[in-house]
Amino acid sequence: MTTQTAALAGFTQADFDVFGIEGLEDRMAAIQNQIQPKFRAIGERLSVDAAVHAGNEMYLHVARHARRKVNPPKDTWLAICSNKRGYKAHPHFQLGLFDDHLFLWLALIYEVPNKSNIATAFLNQIDDVIAAVPKDYVLSLDHMKKESTAVSGMSKQDWKDALIRFRDVQKAELLIGRHVQADDAILRDGDALLALASSTYETLMPLYRMASI
């Protein structure tokens, strides 16, 4: 007798509307009660898939926004990485929401201690890095901003400039992945979103491995 896995809940407009709630306490309550249960459900499945492709255990972390005392968060996310205790100091994968889109990232944020070594490794294999990233993906140098650059419009020099900035500027970051607009039907279907996220992370896994040095 086979047991059927329950369908995953997707994200609805009501989830994106959370970021219009005024005040830290009320917005955090909505994030915790409405969005984080979905993060945990999809993240548990994603971490299993990521572990298969990474070849080692991968752990789920859900952003707590614990440092915030006044301003409510403009976005929220889950993170998956090989470290059980935390993710910020390690290469990791993210799935998260701003008010108008969902993001899927391979994230190398400023807390990563060996940014210089990672950037150098990427620069030394720049052609392989560029070839690994599909043209419909996007790149960001700051996880706190919505803006991103379409990979399709980036030249080799643009890639080099981004990697040099990541290497040389203390607060610079490198995030590579996908944006999905809030009204995209795929977000309503949790299983379809899981498949999209899992395939995105699989595509980016060679860069994750290169960064895990």
What's the structural blueprint in terms of helices and strands?
Blueprint: H1 13-17, H2 24-54, E1 59-62, E2 76-81, E3 92-97, E4 101-108, H3 115-124, H4 126-132, E5 138-140, E6 149-150, H5 156-168, E7 174-181, H6 190-211
What is the assembly state of the chains in this entry? single chain
Number of strands: 7
Strand content: 15-25%
Q: Could you list the spans in which at least 5 consecutive residues all have pLDDT below 50? A: none
CATH class: Alpha Beta
Description of the molecule:
- The protein has 213 residues and is α+β, with helices and mostly antiparallel strands.
- The protein has one domain (13-211): Protein of unknown function DUF1054 (BirA Bifunctional Protein, domain 2).
- The protein is 41% helix and 17% strand.
- It has 6 helices and 7 strands.
- The chain has helices at 13-17, 24-54, 115-124, 126-132, 156-168, 190-211; strands spanning 59-62, 76-81, 92-97, 101-108, 138-140, 149-150, 174-181.
- The protein has a 7-stranded antiparallel beta sheet.
- A hairpin with a 3-residue loop joins strand 3 (92-97) and strand 4.
- Helix 3 packs antiparallel against helix 5 (156-168).
- The longest helix is centred in the first third of the chain and has 31 residues, at 24-54.
- The chain starts with 12 loop residues before the first helix and ends with a helix.
Summary of the model, kept short:
The chain is α+β, with helices and mostly antiparallel strands and 213 residues long.
